[in-house]
Amino acid sequence: MPSWNDGAAKQSIIRFVDDVTGEDAPTFVPPADRIAVFDNDGTLWSEKPVYFQFLFAIERVRALVLQHPQWQSQPLFKAAIDGDFDALGIAGAKGLTTLTMATHSGMTTDAFDRIVEDWITTAQHPRFHRPFTDLAFKPMLELLRYLRDNGFTTYIASAGGIEFLRVWADRIYGVPPQYVIGSSSITQFQMRDGEPVLVREDRIEFIDDEAGKPVGIYKFIGRRPIFAFGNSDGDLQMLQWTAAGGGPRFLGLLHHTDGEREWAYDRNTTVGRLDKALDEARARAWTLVDMKQDWKTIFAFGPK
Amino acid sequence: MPSWNDGAAKQSIIRFVDDVTGEDAPTFVPPADRIAVFDNDGTLWSEKPVYFQFLFAIERVRALVLQHPQWQSQPLFKAAIDGDFDALGIAGAKGLTTLTMATHSGMTTDAFDRIVEDWITTAQHPRFHRPFTDLAFKPMLELLRYLRDNGFTTYIASAGGIEFLRVWADRIYGVPPQYVIGSSSITQFQMRDGEPVLVREDRIEFIDDEAGKPVGIYKFIGRRPIFAFGNSDGDLQMLQWTAAGGGPRFLGLLHHTDGEREWAYDRNTTVGRLDKALDEARARAWTLVDMKQDWKTIFAFGPK
Questions:
Q1: Coil, strand or helix: which one is A157?
Q2: Nearest CA of chain B to the CA of A191: how many Å?
Q3: What confidence tens digit (pLDDT) does each residue in B221-236 have?
Q4: Best residue in A155, A162, A189 to probe B by mutation, most B CBs within 10 Å?
Q5: Which of A126, A182, A224, B175 is least surrounded, with the fewest CB atoms within 10 Å of its CB?
Q6: Domain B8-48+133-294 sits in CATH 1.10.1060.10
Q7: A36-65, pLDDT tens digit by residue?
Q8: Partners of A255 in the β-ladder
């Protein structure tokens, strides 16, 4: 993991992996149980000025607002049209799912995938002027690979949309669709012109955030992870539930402390608030990764 | 696949696997896309006199009815208490989920797993007087292994309960929990005595049957399978949706034709009706496996 400075955080990761892979160790865990779950926004890539999927939703709302004039009088949609990031941040995963499904209901899952693919390959981040996928954290990509090289299966458990992530998570993170867990709207099987298709509805199915994260993880994996990594209060229950299993456990939290190379925030922010989870991490000696201290490099495109 | 007679069915399987694994063939499919989905009841193990999970539910309803006297006046519960298999068969996957969640709501997922584990290792099939897991079809176990040996990932997509199956599917079928898809009730994250647990509620979350099967498969896997195998009309939409993808496809249906060694039924039965799907399989030249003709051995415990 060359992008990590040698410090307590890196050491705690390596020690944990050594503990569970050493075949003669009492802490050995067989590969089938080496399940690692990662939050996405703010953990694997940046989340400022607002979850990147909100910027996707903003573009879609603006593109479709002429066909939906009633959106102008709905606060959530108005916030998207106006680019009001504070209001969107407060709306959180549920607001994001609502916007995504409103702008993409009635279409097939295949059609939605194409819209996401088009956006993710062309849209640019407002500060860095690069594709959003360039804002994946290099140290975390190295960590994902390090874990997989040691027999782990790496999952993503995101409050963002499951179908949004699945389009590109394999390419960027090496996490194929079946290992992506996220928030979702309901889909229905239909016959259209004699073709069986899956159609997106405008009803929320599941919000994979806060207490929803352990529920989603259990539903998709059917096992309790031994390794969980997040960065905000939305990840607290995932970390608690992972910690409560028997045997060796790794609990990690990324602390955004680098306002120069990325962003610095914790308790006072609407997007990615880290407050209760920060207290609990300190009280229980979970691994706190200090972005500024622990990471040599943040993005693969190098220091600004 | 030593339990298969050399015939059209076995040949069509082998030809398909050769087609998608031959690296120079235009029909080559990379391993990541070699997704195979199997129905469970009637496809991987028997389903008579009624889905085996109904026998589990019957035992649970009878064990708990004194605490729930109102069940005596509810038709579905009454059918379970009376062992009315026709009525239970008609109630189908939804009835099964209702019984399972009514008898196991309020308990943690861990507690439910222990009850299933206890039942599956001790209960016996009424005709064969053996553990239910002995009624897994030997030719299908060989097929699962053959596919995995050829780089496939084998999934189960069952109308039965996801948590019920996950307890033993790995041991019997070699299909670990994360590759089991099924019907489910809602679970909630709770703190009990300071311990984070997942608790089963008495609300249906998802019925993985008929039009629900492609929905469940897409939700869990995020890809369209290239291989699907079922045995009843409940599998029709799964087969149709799998067939509609581009590139080589294998669609299989098991036809229960052996009343002596197993059971013989198709259009006229409440449990495992094969009617529309039989017509469509013949019209579209899907692979129909004739249990009596195609299988040398049905169960590992040998000819009756």
A1: strand
A2: 10
A3: 999 999 999 999 999 9
A4: A189
A5: A126
A6: no
A7: 999 999 999 999 999 999 999 999 999 999
A8: A290
